[in-house]
Amino acid sequence: DQPLLEVKDLKVSFQTYAGEVQAVRGVSFHLNKGEVLAIVGESGCGKSVTAQTIMRLIPNPPGVIKDGSILFNGEHDITKLSDKQMEKIRGKEMGMIFQDPMTSLNPTMQVGKQITEGLIKHQGMNKEDAMKRAIEMLSLVGMSNPESRVKQYPHEFSGGMRQRVMIALALACTPKLLIADEPTTALDVTIQAQIIKLMKKLSEQTSASIIVITHDLGIVADMAQRVIVMYAGKVVEQGTIDEIFYNSRHPYTWGLLRSVPRLDKSADEELVPIPGSPPDLFAPPVGCAFAARCPYAMGICMEKDPEHTLVSGQHSAACWLLHPDAPKVARPADIGG
Ligand code: SF4
Ligand code: MG
């Protein structure tokens, strides 16, 4: 079956007064129909820029797609569509959930009206049917009294409820693709769990494919089938949940697994942050971008950027340790799995 989304060698830069920031430096991956894919990595690794580029939400200027293609549903190369064509696809076939619901909610408009707007414009629904659908969506995301809730304004909802309104808004047009960028970071743990459960349930019901962007590996384990690990604007490892949690091969992934709290680990287990910080993307390093922070770095790591090596099936990592002539390094035992 054809994937819903095929990203090939995507490069995105930002032109600034200080020079060009190479935020995304040749990213390739695919998303299957009905699949939940997680993109993980520290902040500034290019995961949000990648997602926003897929939705063409990067302002140009300063953002520029330098190279690559994004094939959506086998027919459109998103990088080549006009703003007008893109607006249509976005309203009809894509939805986005942000960390801050107010990014997509209009504070001066009743939430029901906000949901019906897109349905009327992109789905050609009449006002009445659209309002029915808005009420149905609010009830689907777990809101009681949706008939009166549609008349309320965003500020009349709690943080968790606003998140639900945003999910209802994003899913009202039954998008084929839903992108959730740090969807629960601002919420407390109980509400986080509810929202994740809700997104999972809705994706199963509507068979939407989801890209979830997060630094929280607990969410990844709970929601996704496959994971992409990004570092300094590149994909450094990709694989299924099991492959990444139990058989990861990239030292950066090892660092992430150690440094990020997980819902399935007890709170007193020690978290070890990765020492150092990601490289400056004004002038990315010549070799492996992780070399300056990597305890296993070798001479070649400073000279040449490693290609992806296939580990098995769909599992691959970009690290010189996977070269047949590299010294054998075992995956550290303390990251368990
Ligand atoms: Fe570390 Fe070298 Fe692998 Fe980069 S290529 S992660 S520096 S061992
Ligand atoms: Mg981000």
UniProtKB/TrEMBL annotation:
One of its GO terms (biological process) is peptide transport. GO terms for molecular function: ATP binding; ATP hydrolysis activity. Transmembrane segments: none annotated. Keywords: ATP-binding, Cell membrane, Membrane, Nucleotide-binding, Transport. Residues 5-257 form the ABC transporter domain. Pfam families: ABC_tran, oligo_HPY. The keyword Nucleotide-binding applies. Gene3D superfamilies: P-loop containing nucleotide triphosphate hydrolases. It is found in: Cell membrane. It comes from the Bacteria. This is ABC transporter ATP-binding protein. It comes from Paenibacillus albiflavus.
